[in-house]
Amino acid sequence: CAAGSEKSFSPAAPAVHSARLPKTCPRAPAAVSAATVAVHADFTEDRVSALSQVSGVLGSQWGDEGKGKLVDVLAPRFDIVARCQGGANAGHTIYNAEGNKFALHLVPSGIIHEGTQCVVGNGVVIHVSGFFGEIDGLESNRVRCDGRILVSDRAHLLFDLHQVVDGLREAELEDSFIGTTKRGIGPCYSSKLDVLFKDAASRFQGFKYSKSMLKEEVERYKRFADRLEPFIADTVHVLNESIQQNKKILVEGGQATMLDIDFGTYPFVTSSSPSAGGICTGLGITPRIIGDLIGVVKAYTSSVGSGPFPTELFGEEGDRLRKAGMEFGTTTGRPRRCGWLDIHSLALKYCCQINGFSSFTKLDVLSGLSEIKVGVSYNQADEQTLQSFPGDLDTLEQVQVHNICYASRYILFLGQLYEVLPGWQSDNSSIRSYSELPQAARRYVERIEELVGVPPYLALSIFLLLFIFIAVVAVIPQSY
Ligand code: IMP
Fold this sequence. Notes:
Elements lengths: L33 H4 L4 H8 L4 E6 L7 H8 L5 E4 L8 E4 L5 E4 L12 E4 L4 E2 L1 H13 L8 E4 L3 E2 L2 H14 L11 H9 L2 H8 L7 H18 L3 E2 L1 H10 L4 E4 L24 H7 L6 E9 L2 E3 L11 H10 L12 E3 L1 E2 L1 H12 L4 E2 L9 E5 L17 H22 L3 E5 L16 H14 L3 H20 L5
Parallel strand pairs: 1-10, 1-11, 2-5, 2-10, 5-7, 6-8, 7-9, 11-15, 14-16
Antiparallel strand pairs: 3-4, 12-13, 16-17
Helix pairs in contact: 5-6
Pfam families: Adenylsucc_synt (PF00709)
EC number: 6.3.4.4
Keywords: Chloroplast, GTP-binding, Ligase, Magnesium, Membrane, Metal-binding, Nucleotide-binding, Plastid, Purine biosynthesis, Transmembrane, Transmembrane helix
């Protein structure tokens, strides 16, 4: 569903205008990937081609919802795929038509499609050697990058020393560590505002950066300058010119709303704005042009960092989801924490208010469970139900404890915290149409739709993405 579409479901959805293109897209679709070929439903075709001139794919949970795959599927319909925030902390795994696997971190997922221009916007932080490492990997697999990637001349460089400081900061936090990807993201964004280096030298005993080491690093980066030069552009100008020329732009979000520096579970968050607002600041385009925002929601929840996770599953239950969903970090390889879908904190009251969207992935991972739970409300220690997602982590922690302690009682006697739905036994990964899904799987999707409050028009979007992802799951081994 679209933040800017006329039938936006939430009254609180941002009032942005949908700038729709004429029905015919100015650019013929480029070569389609295996994933795209697998998308069947006619209305899917219509909805995909009707996506706004500037659309976005954003995460609605704690990241790893499958945004990269969706961007890969949609990229042939867009002229430009742009990243607006984050850096190499993102890990988007995609496969090309020959089945070659690409783990992308900085390069936008549109790169696999020959005709798509990729833009790394001003809001992204760039580790240059990592960036070229990705390009080398792509080119050795015959993906042409030359002239296809533009890097903003306003984007900040992320140095190795940012990564060192990231690790030292985490060590300093001891048991309260954030669980960062140690890619230097926080320190790099901090040094946009502050002079980090002096502080780091006096603060961390293990900080080995001497003046000569700094000089060496700068020299090393100078050597990248020649190679980097052709990639650099005033991407604010390029994007705004492209909008004038009616070109279609797809924004690829990294991370997700629950990791947003403002709206996420601070301080267990990333240092950028992965929500809708980050698109404008990270690319330099007006909010008026942003149309459809597709929020990707996984059929359950995963998270790699620390912090409260009210619907987390431990022991065998958690292990089962982790194994079936291959929930191991693309960037760090860390096992992800897994749990039930948490309607309360996600689509219903919070993410949709902030971004105005909803959609669904990885339903097949839940196959084989006898029952499926959905977190529907948070009760506090005094048994009061929280009316909105709390900004205060102590409250959220209490909810978590309370939730876990009392979950079965509520399920058994009141049905209040978790709603329990019947599971389905058959494998649905090769199913291509919604009506062929097991009845219980449809019931699950429809119940979530009801809980989220998506009206029929928007429900189609959920199904659209469901179709896409059922198809993708069938064609491409899961690796998120
Ligand atoms: P940072 O972005 O490396 O500073 O990490 C901050 C938090 O965001 C940690 O909890 C990370 O695990 C999480 N995080 C960052 N990038 C991703 C991602 O792409 N997927 C999932 N979690 C992420």
